[in-house]
């Protein structure tokens, strides 16, 4: 088994209808539950606030916002990519798939 970090980029929800926000969160929780039952989910976290780039002893800039991450432990990279594709397809306004960008990176530690 190999662990992968799936980093989900921020999607602004400020103008979404409350039902669309709820549908989106329900989809993400359902995916986490499915991965947990399959023994593939290590951790899942939402993120808040700005991302700061720190270099040396000072803040060098602000990075694009991220909405969350998952760590999955799977048999193959292909499986990690399929999980990322499902997370990317989370519903947005009106239930349409968002196709939000997700970075997939293999972790070096087992």
TrEMBL record:
<protein>
    <submittedName>
        <fullName>YCII-like protein</fullName>
    </submittedName>
</protein>
<dbReference type="InterPro" id="IPR011008">
    <property type="entry name" value="Dimeric_a/b-barrel"/>
</dbReference>
């Amino acid at each position: 088994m190999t662990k992968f970090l799936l980093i989900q980029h921020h999607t602004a929800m400020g103008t979404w209808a409350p039902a669309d926000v709820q549908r989106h969160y329900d989809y993400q929780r359902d995916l986490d539950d499915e991965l947990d039952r399959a023994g593939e989910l290590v951790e899942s976290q939402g993120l808040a606030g700005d991302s700061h780039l720190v270099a040396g002893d000072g803040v060098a800039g602000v990075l694009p916002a991220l909405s969350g991450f998952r760590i999955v432990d799977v048999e193959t990279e292909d499986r990690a990519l399929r999980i990322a594709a499902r997370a990317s397809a989370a519903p947005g306004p009106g239930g349409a798939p968002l196709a939000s960008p997700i970075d997939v990176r293999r972790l070096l530690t087992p």
